[in-house]
Specification:
With 285 residues, the protein is an alpha/beta fold. Helix content is 40%, strand content 15%. It has a 6-stranded parallel beta sheet. The chain is globular and about 50 Å long. The model has no long low-confidence stretch (mean pLDDT 98). The structure holds guanine (GUN). The site of guanine (GUN) has 8 residues, from strand 4 and helix 6. The site of guanine has 8 residues, from strand 4 and helix 6.
Length: 285
């Protein structure tokens, strides 16, 4: 059996068309949704991500501003910028690209973003709201994964076992919460998990968010499972230099029922959910 591909580009285009129409309607009422993207330092991958985020805003008719700060920016300078964005009425969403340089306390920065502008869903208030089942802003990558599940008709996950590999604050933990709220039975695995392959093989829905190229092998996947690959890993030049996910695509493709590709899977959905969150923020403002 070959897995059915869940095409993130196709789904993202569909959702972005709907968002663009809603942006037009909001503009007609005098409000242009605005996103501020803050990048500190020269991280190559982050530069690509923020460029894509700003371009995506323009395509749906949103206003966006990019603040590119040098790596030597102090924490106080960054906090001052966030403070001014919090008070800027033309900005409805604020995104501080991670990772930040080591000399800046990430937690302090994320908490400085006003919760009602926290379109990344990283503020403790928004994380807590998700935890108690009353989500406001949900982290974009897991939100995008849930859209992909909905798109293949998996809305109520009662009786399904979901296994999330990875426990980051950005993906693993919020992903597990969203799956739980959709009534799945959820296991969170990580680097300290004993017999990871056996845990993964239980999964009707397997979400790979470990950040290790082709880590999930075919013998870790239950035949027919839905496999969602969150990883974006650049292989070394000696291995071709291409982008691959956390899933060994070609092998798992022969076992899984559904599979997301990399690139063109979760990535475009992450940006789409950022647009969605920004639209929601503007609507609430
Ligand atoms: N770095 C990696 N993923 C993300 C994300 O979703 N948001 C932000 N702000 N930084 C990231």
């Amino acid at each position: 059996m070959t897995a059915i591909r869940i095409d993130g580009n196709v789904l993202a285009a569909k959702v972005r068309d709907r968002i663009a129409a809603e942006v037009s309607a909001l503009k007609a009422r005098g409000v242009t949704p605005g996103l501020a993207v803050v990048l500190v330092g020269e991280d190559a991958a982050s530069q690509v991500y923020v460029r894509n985020k700003v371009a995506a805003c323009a395509k749906v008719g949103m206003h966006s501003v990019m603040h590119k700060l040098p790596a030597a920016t102090t924490e106080a300078e960054l906090l001052a910028l966030i403070d001014s964005l919090n008070r800027d009425a033309t900005i409805h969403g604020i995104l501080v690209q991670l990772p930040l340089p080591k000399h800046i306390a990430e937690k302090k920065v994320l908490e400085a973003v006003a919760a009602h502008k926290d379109v990344d869903g990283f503020h403790a208030e928004n994380v807590g709201a998700l935890m108690i089942g009353e989500p406001r802003f949900v982290s974009c990558t897991p939100a995008g994964c849930m859209e992909m599940l909905r798109d293949i008709g998996m809305t109520d996950l009662r009786g399904k076992h979901a296994v999330v590999v990875g426990r980051s604050n950005i993906v693993g933990k919020p992903m597990a919460m969203l799956l739980l709220h959709a009534n799945a039975t959820v296991t969170i695995c990580h680097s300290g998990t004993k017999d990871l392959a056996a845990q993964c093989r239980q999964a009707d829905i397997l979400v790979a968010a470990v950040g290790r190229p082709r880590f999930i092998k075919a013998d870790m996947v239950k035949p027919g499972a839905v496999v969602i690959d969150v990883g974006i890993n650049r292989l070394p030049e000696s291995e071709g230099g291409k982008l691959v996910g956390d899933v060994d695509f070609d092998a798992v493709n022969e076992v899984a029922g559904y599979l997301t590709p990399v690139p063109g899977g979760v990535g475009p959905m992450t940006i789409t959910m950022l647009l969605q969150n920004t639209l929601v923020a503007a609507n609430r403002a």
